[in-house]
């Protein structure tokens, strides 16, 4: 096999063709993350201002059989990221070929992570199970053989939990028996002031996730770039802020499983928006992200945010929630989720989807 660095106007078209070939005929794959991929790989986004991104394809004879991007984010300087990986099956030791390109293009960096797509907010993880169902919007999907290509690397697993709306309702209402927090107020975002609201979201992210694996601080414009493609699908209720004495201390981001609007391998479009706004049924939502600044992480803020979301979720008629995406070493978050869900279920909840990133010092 031959590895080729691709650049110029036609590079992204070549790069995207590999994915189209890999997923041809796969009824579970959704291309709803392509807008995020294009944001990083085919535009001058805010993220590009502090990173180097190089695209590669692998060919066997005249056939394109794999692709990957190498990303060096100066805010996560110890890692080279192997991102947006796609490949046909049974290609042998692909990682050695990738490693050679890292040595050539980034000779001073000796730590590699496979499966991180620029930043945690853009996407992370290679799917390890549930290959026979469509992914929830915003979660990775890939064929079942991808992890085999990186089996000799250190594996860092992530998990989600899936549960019924009855359980979510019990979880949210458990706030009513928690202690009160003086000065706590909860509010939905105001999309009319999206720049200001996004700046608060960015600030809280940067304060809340400093100790999270692979975290790198964000700029306001980066999160605006990320929200932009989905601005017409999001409602004020999808982002909830917690304030104590008018100071932002936490947020909760959730959104519907927009993948249920798409019945083929394409990104969301205006017709999906129309279907959604005219009542197209979606039965699941994603508990996407909850961030609390350190001094309030053991306070009632998290459960208060969850409780605030409940009336909207009940009105929308969702049947299921899936959330988590928690690294296995994040014991505090796993314990929090399990403790609350066990109280609601009456038994310890089981992990639903599993993902992994893969690391190696080279």
Give the SSE map.
Layout lengths: L1 E5 L4 H12 L11 H8 L9 E10 L2 E11 L5 E9 L6 H12 L5 E4 L11 E2 L26 E11 H9 L10 E5 L5 H15 L11 H8 L11 E6 L2 E10 L13 H8 L6 E9 L8 H16 L3 E8 L3 H15 L8 E8 L1
Parallel strand pairs: 4-5, 11-12
Antiparallel strand pairs: 1-2, 2-3, 3-4, 5-13, 6-13, 7-12, 7-13, 8-9, 9-10, 10-11
Helix pairs in contact: 4-8, 4-9, 5-6
Folded structure, characterized:
The chain folds into two domains: 2-157, Aminopeptidase, CATH 3.40.630; 161-356, Aminopeptidase. The model has no long low-confidence stretch (mean pLDDT 92). The chain has 362 residues and is α+β, with helices and mostly antiparallel strands. 28% of the residues lie in helices and 27% in strands. Strands 1, 2, 3, 4, 5, 6, 7, 8, 9, 10, 11, 12 and 13 form a 13-stranded mixed β-sheet that branches.
In brief, what are we looking at here?
By secondary structure, the chain is α+β, with helices and mostly antiparallel strands.
């Amino acid at each position: 096999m031959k590895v080729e660095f691709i650049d110029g106007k036609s590079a992204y078209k070549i790069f995207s063709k590999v994915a189209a070939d890999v997923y041809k005929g796969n009824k579970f794959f959704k291309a709803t993350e392509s807008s995020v991929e294009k944001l990083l790989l085919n535009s001058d986004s805010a993220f590009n201002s502090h990173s180097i991104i190089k695209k590669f394809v692998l060919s066997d004879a005249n056939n394109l059989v794999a692709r990957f991007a190498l990303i060096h984010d100066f805010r996560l300087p110890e890692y080279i990221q192997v991102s947006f990986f796609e490949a046909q099956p049974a290609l042998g030791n692909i990682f050695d070929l990738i490693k050679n390109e890292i040595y050539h293009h980034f000779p001073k960096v000796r730590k590699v992570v496979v499966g991180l797509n620029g930043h945690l907010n853009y996407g992370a993880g290679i799917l390890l199970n549930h290959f026979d169902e469509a992914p929830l919007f915003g979660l990775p999907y890939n064929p079942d053989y991808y992890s085999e290509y990186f089996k000799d690397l250190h594996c860092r697993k992530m998990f989600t939990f899936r549960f019924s709306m009855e359980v979510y309702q019990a979880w949210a209402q458990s706030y009513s028996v928690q202690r009160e927090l003086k000065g706590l107020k909860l509010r939905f975002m105001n999309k009319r002031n999206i720049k200001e609201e996004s700046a608060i979201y960015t600030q809280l992210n940067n304060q809340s996730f400093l100790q999270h694996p692979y975290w790198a601080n964000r700029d306001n414009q980066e999160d605006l770039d990320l929200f932009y493609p989905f601005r017409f699908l999001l409602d004020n209720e999808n982002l909830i802020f917690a304030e104590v004495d008018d100071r932002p201390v936490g947020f909760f981001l959730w959104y519907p499983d927009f993948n249920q609007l798409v019945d083929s391998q394409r990104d969301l479009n205006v017709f999906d928006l129309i279907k959604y706004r005219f009542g197209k049924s979606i039965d699941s939502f994603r508990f996407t992200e909850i961030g609390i600044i350190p001094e309030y992480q053991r306070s009632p803020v998290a459960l208060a945010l969850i409780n605030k979301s409940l009336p909207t979720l009940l009105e929308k008629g969702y049947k299921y929630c899936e959330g988590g995406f928690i690294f296995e070493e994040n014991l505090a978050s796993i314990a929090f989720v399990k403790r609350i869900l066990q109280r609601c279920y009456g038994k310890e909840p089981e992990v639903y989807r599993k993902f992994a990133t893969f690391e190696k010092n080279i």
